[in-house]
Amino acid sequence: MTATAAPATVDTARLPGLLTLARVRAGVELRTFLRERDAVVFILAYPVIMLVIFATVFGSDPVGITDEAGRAVGFAQYFLPGMVATGVMLSSFQSLAIAIAVERDDGTLKRLRATPAPAAAYFLGKIAQILTVTVVQVAALLAVATLVYDVPLPDDPGRWWTFAWVLLLGAATGTVCGVAFSSLPRSGRSATAVVTPVVLVLQFISGVFFMLDQLPAWLRQVAEVFPLKWMAQGMRSVFLPDAALALEPDGSWQHGATAVVLVVWLVVGLAVGLRTFRWRRRDDC
């Protein structure tokens, strides 16, 4: 009688730590992102391109308000906050929703799940990639706005604090919602067609391409349900003078409401993502 061979096991004690694995995974995610030219153009460069288009079309035309120094606020300065907000949504929500759907469809997630690496390393790698792209994107937007269109940056530390928490909370919300939404497309091939129209519609109704006071009241009420409107409004409170409150339908920056809406979407996205996230395709048993 021969002894039955014991199944091979993985010595998890020899695996690198979670942070090391996450750092390696982050490098993989960044390289993969940069190799996708369409992702670089439509996610990383898109807000910068749109800012240049708007600033070129409208030129230095004022929007009807002046800052504390008496300088007229032009369209480049007015649209900068919306471009920052939409950049955060593109880098987090759209990027993740499409990328995860594609990786699920081509079997990448299934293979990753079969390795001894913890699932947390995969998600931490995605988060690191999102934060890196977001920082580069925002830096490019601010550089173009200030150097090319002479948009003044705030000198009040309180405004930069608002910028930081709106940016981080918006990115976190977009990330968890992107993970949750990635389960909706039926295949990786259809992911772009499912995700992109959602982001485009939100941009049009959330004060990114138009001033909110120019939109119908019912459309503004629809926009208030979703995070992008509040991210754009929070960013306007950073880069626009208080005189711009005259252009806000509610006459207030509503920082409290911004935080509440983003946190609610963060919690909802996390709950839905935990229930619906799949490592395999629907037809893969």
TrEMBL record:
<keyword id="KW-0813">Transport</keyword>
<dbReference type="Pfam" id="PF01061">
    <property type="entry name" value="ABC2_membrane"/>
</dbReference>
<dbReference type="GO" id="GO:0046677">
    <property type="term" value="P:response to antibiotic"/>
</dbReference>
<feature type="transmembrane region" description="Helical">
    <location>
        <begin position="160"/>
        <end position="181"/>
    </location>
</feature>
<comment type="similarity">
    <text>Belongs to the ABC-2 integral membrane protein family.</text>
</comment>
<feature type="transmembrane region" description="Helical">
    <location>
        <begin position="123"/>
        <end position="148"/>
    </location>
</feature>
<dbReference type="InterPro" id="IPR051784">
    <property type="entry name" value="Nod_factor_ABC_transporter"/>
</dbReference>
<feature type="domain" description="ABC transmembrane type-2">
    <location>
        <begin position="38"/>
        <end position="280"/>
    </location>
</feature>
<dbReference type="InterPro" id="IPR013525">
    <property type="entry name" value="ABC2_TM"/>
</dbReference>
<keyword id="KW-0046">Antibiotic resistance</keyword>
<feature type="transmembrane region" description="Helical">
    <location>
        <begin position="78"/>
        <end position="102"/>
    </location>
</feature>
<keyword id="KW-0812">Transmembrane</keyword>
<feature type="transmembrane region" description="Helical">
    <location>
        <begin position="39"/>
        <end position="58"/>
    </location>
</feature>
<keyword id="KW-1003">Cell membrane</keyword>
<keyword id="KW-1133">Transmembrane helix</keyword>
<dbReference type="GO" id="GO:0043190">
    <property type="term" value="C:ATP-binding cassette (ABC) transporter complex"/>
</dbReference>
<protein>
    <recommendedName>
        <fullName>Transport permease protein</fullName>
    </recommendedName>
</protein>
<dbReference type="GO" id="GO:0140359">
    <property type="term" value="F:ABC-type transporter activity"/>
</dbReference>
<dbReference type="InterPro" id="IPR000412">
    <property type="entry name" value="ABC_2_transport"/>
</dbReference>
<keyword id="KW-0472">Membrane</keyword>
<feature type="transmembrane region" description="Helical">
    <location>
        <begin position="193"/>
        <end position="212"/>
    </location>
</feature>
<feature type="transmembrane region" description="Helical">
    <location>
        <begin position="253"/>
        <end position="274"/>
    </location>
</feature>
<dbReference type="InterPro" id="IPR047817">
    <property type="entry name" value="ABC2_TM_bact-type"/>
</dbReference>
